[in-house]
Write a structure and sequence with these properties.
Elements: E1 6-13, E2 16-23, H1 28-35, E3 54-57, E4 60-63, E5 76-78, H2 91-98, H3 108-123, H4 145-151, H5 162-184
Parallel strand pairs: 1-5
Antiparallel strand pairs: 1-2, 3-4, 3-5
Length: about 190
């Protein structure tokens, strides 16, 4: 008896459940782009080396070209299409616009998804390879340009917009820190 090589799966993408048939070898990237018409996630190298296909899986960044669609079932998937709050841009998206953190724009969706995770990882106190003191009592390192470059190093930009990308991530991190501090102080956030 031959085993089936396809399944019908349900993916939770940007807060919406989407059911689709997939071959077990279909990557999440191909399912998003080719079957669900979510083309914001870009296919760059198809080898997990450029970061153009970065999405958030349960809030953590993942290169979707190396993730099988069947393995993503039951997980919360956020693509660039699900980052904004309606017409209100996510602070990272706004910072990329403010600092011109893109040129051709091809890598931008992956850069933005990665930056969102970078800011959350940093806020949670996760060290990077650039962190000088990783002792828990040292606390979170400052989110310097060196820290941002190291944390974003899995996302390549062929146009070379790195200076603007680092500035955008730094600005978005400051915006998020102010918003979080304001929420902790009981202020209403718009």
């Amino acid at each position: 008896m031959a085993l089936s090589t396809s399944s019908v799966i349900t993916l939770n993408i940007n807060g919406e459940k989407r059911t689709l048939p997939v071959d077990h070898r279909t990557t999440l990237l191909d399912a998003l782009r080719e079957q669900l018409d979510l083309t914001g996630t870009k296919k760059g190298c198809d080898h997990g080396q450029c970061g153009a296909c970065t999405v958030l899986l349960d809030g953590s960044r993942a290169v979707s070209c190396l993730q099988l669609a069947v393995a993503a079932e039951g997980r919360e998937i956020t693509t660039i299409e699900g980052v904004a709050d309606g017409d209100r841009l996510h602070p990272v998206q706004q910072a990329f616009l403010d600092f011109d953190g893109y040129q051709c724009g091809y890598c931008t969706p992956g850069q933005i998804c990665s930056a969102i995770a970078v800011i959350e990882e940093h806020a949670a106190g996760w060290p990077s390879a650039a962190t000088a003191d990783i002792r828990p009592e040292a606390g979170a390192p400052a989110l310097t340009a060196e820290e941002i470059r190291e944390r974003m190093s899995g996302n390549l930009c062929r146009c070379g917009a790195y200076v603007s990308i680092v500035q955008a991530v730094a600005q978005a991190a400051e915006t998020e820190a102010r918003r979080t501090a304001g929420a902790a102080d009981g202020e209403l956030t718009a």
